[in-house]
Amino acid sequence: MSARLVYPAEAVAWLAAQIDRELATLVWAESQGVPQPITCPLRPGTSKSPRTISAEAWTDWQLAWDRVDLEGLAGVYLDHMPVAGRSRDVPTKLTVGSLDAGVRLLARWGHASRDELVARMRGIAARLRDAGVAVTAPVLKRVCDMSDRDVDAAVSAVQWLRDHRDLSTMTIRQLPIPDVDTKWLEGHAALVELLTSRDVRAETRPRLSAVHLTYLDPAYRATGARRHDAWTAGDSHPLA
Questions:
Q1: Helices H, strands E: what count in the chain?
Q2: CA dihedral 57, 58, 59, 62 (to 10 degrees)
């Protein structure tokens, strides 16, 4: 890695990218009571000696960090350390100790608000836990990537399945899950299995095969009896 000095705006932009990329992990970690800090190194590739970078560059960079105001940003830390050849300690890393601290820092620097996005993810995490889902960061990200309508359907499916253990008498499209379209569960069976550890495709009975037919015999049709019929696998009624 080539030696370089990271300026304040660049460091905050890097933290913003990290928060966006790891948002599900950050929300999950805080729900476990162990907020996950994010640290941006400010002197990657440099040693304790400033000889690889010009004195002018060091001075310009340090002055840029001197102008940074972190007052009132609880949970945001700028660490310093001594460096040979410099008259005072220099910044070494910028750390946000929690998701909320990171969001406050981004807002201070004029980045788009993450408040609504974070609130949505926290709300979904709470709904999944209340429904009995063992929430993990990958599970949370998977669900949060869906539309609000699909999230509602997923939560409803989990809640209904929690209270109904025997599905053997119904096909997957016959499950009377509130607010879930008849085709939704069939199309999202893998997601439901991820959330419930239950394969509804295996627990329900298969959709029975049916044959639809039209009678063409002229003598039969002349009787005026039914012209169309259907036979379903397992039925015992005789055809005309």
A1: 11, 5
A2: 120
**Number of domains observed in the structure of the chain:** 3
Report the phi/psi class of residue 212: left, alpha or beta, with left for phi > 0 and alpha for psi in -120 to 50: beta
Average pLDDT, the chain: 91
Strands 38-41 and 90-96: antiparallel
pLDDT in tens, 48-102: 555 677 888 888 999 999 999 999 999 999 999 887 766 778 899 999 999 999 9
Q: Residue 206 in 3-state DSSP?
A: coil
Residue 79: inside a domain, yes or no?
yes
Residue 197 lies in a domain: yes
How far is Cα 32 from Cα 59, in angstroms, rounded to an integer? 42
CA distance 214 to 37: 70
199, 215: one domain: no
Question: Are residues 50 and 92 part of one domain?
Answer: yes
CA-to-CA distance for 15 and 80, rounded, in angstroms? 18
The residue range of the domain holding 59 is 8-113
Give one DSSP letter per residue of 128-182, joined into a string: HHHTT----HHHHHHHHTS-HHHHHHHHHHHHHHHH----TTS-GGG---TT--T
The answer to whether the CB of 142 falls within 8 A of the CB of 194 is yes
Distance CA(71)–CA(229), nearest Å, equals: 80
Q: What is the pLDDT of residues 15-39, one digit of tens each?
A: 999 999 999 999 999 999 999 999 9
In a domain, residue 29? The reply is yes
Contact 135, 21 (CB under 8 A): no
